[in-house]
Amino acid sequence: LKKCNGMMSFDRVVECQAVTGPAELGLQIGLQSPGIQDEIQKAITKALPSLHLYRHRLTQLPSQLSLASGNPKAAQNNLKHALATFTQNDPPHILYTSHLALIASISSQSSDETTNTIHSLGTISDLHNLAPNEIGESLEAAEGMLDMEDILNGYAQEKGKVPEDQKPMTLPLPPSSSGYMLSMLEYTLIVHTLILGIIFHTYIGDASLRNLQLKWLHKLLDIQLPC
């Protein structure tokens, strides 16, 4: 990373990523290693003027450093200041990430878990109230695209309906290239949803559903979509 930072030909996005890399790596290594805290601070300071799009991440890094250094109050003050500077042009995920970072900071400021939970409730409530207000129409659109029922019904009509009581617990097969045509967006969302499902069912140890989803994913990936 230091060698990368010595190069001069980066665009601003790559430059900022290269500069914040040592800070994030240093936080993963831990402040107990000699010189790590100074390296993190240098990286954060160097990155600050680099890119407007990264300003919120560059606020979170000093907060993480303060938290790791045993100063949760400073971490919380940095994050609260960042939350107060958000505008309507900032993407929602950045806003949510900052709220979650503040919740994490508050919930780790004491050895008493009950006290931490009580202190975190206000910030958790703020995030809970923020979500519907901020994402509204976008959430509805995403839910509509991720609602597979209509798509799966289209598959079922192609293949012939089976009485509900005779249906095994299985996933429908993907359409053939000559039948129901998926748009690129539908295809991408279904693939990502299947990948998430495979990860989840692997994590909880449900091999049967994981294998069914893997089978469907492989068949979907074999479909040649028109460009």
Descriptors for this entry?
227 residues; membrane; transmembrane; mainly alpha; 10 helices; 2 domains; transmembrane helix
Give a summary of the structure in a few sentences.
The protein is an all-alpha fold and 227 residues long.
Number of strands: 0
**Rough shape?**
globular
Question: Average pLDDT across residues?
Answer: 70
Number of helices: 10
Structural class: mainly alpha
Residue share in helix: 55-70%
How far apart lie the N and C ends? Answer: 38 Å
Contiguous low-pLDDT stretches (5 residues minimum) are 165-180
String of helices and strands: HHHHHHHHHH
Strand percentage: under 5%
Query: What's the gyration radius in Å?
Result: 24 Å
Biggest sheet overview:
none
Count of folded domains: 2
Structural features, described:
The chain crosses the membrane at residues 184-204. Keywords: Membrane, Transmembrane, Transmembrane helix. With 227 residues, the chain is mainly alpha-helical. It has two domains: 2-135; 149-221, no CATH class. The chain has helices spanning 2-5, 12-29, 36-47, 55-68, 72-84, 92-106, 113-146, 149-159, 184-204, 207-221. It is globular. Mean pLDDT is 70; it is low at 165-180.
